[in-house]
């Protein structure tokens, strides 16, 4: 079945361009469009998309709040959010990731990257530019713990190996890179990542990276 995509952007011309790109792909289907966050919420409820391409800065309701409501505890459907931004390092992107977005992409990214990003997010991998996610968190390190605070109790539910894997995820390593670093198989890494997400109540790798920074487990600039 085709991946159902909802386009959310306050610029109709951009939505048209995205639609043309996506509808050329046999496994993608654009099921609707919205010009702001409030319209996006209505469309998500009505259309049940798999992936929402979400602009950040929009009138009435911005992309951060819309993301929070779409992916929050009262969510109504399977939609994952892929944030679109004009700016490489944008504080709003950090907030969108904290709100539950599965990743982000620059609006001027090549068409093939947009298509692949949608497929990755729809598949639940959420490995979209984790290294850029780290750069964002590094840039806004002033909002993060200094490392002097005690680690949250939830971290103590992880095994030593799971903590190790979480640190590597936060550094932006892929499963293959983590496997090579720890001298284990990719399947083993996938299992560890799955356990980390389940124990910490996180949706995907991007949220895991954010958690690792916000908890103080990983500090900006650390290796």
Automatic annotation (TrEMBL):
Entry-linked CDD domains: LuxR_C_like, REC_NarL-like
Alphabetic keyword roster: DNA-binding, Phosphoprotein, Transcription, Transcription regulation
Residues in Response regulatory domain copies: 4-122
Record's keyword annotation contains Transcription: yes
Modified-residue entries (4-aspartylphosphate), positions: 55
Sequence ranges assigned to domain HTH luxR-type in this UniProt record: 151-216
PROSITE patterns: HTH_LUXR_1, HTH_LUXR_2, RESPONSE_REGULATORY
Matching InterPro entries: CheY-like_superfamily (IPR011006), NreC/VraR/RcsB-like_REC (IPR058245), Sig_transdc_resp-reg_C-effctor (IPR016032), Sig_transdc_resp-reg_receiver (IPR001789), Tscrpt_reg_LuxR_C (IPR000792), WalR-like (IPR039420)
UniProt-recorded name of the protein: Response regulator
Organism: Streptomyces gamaensis
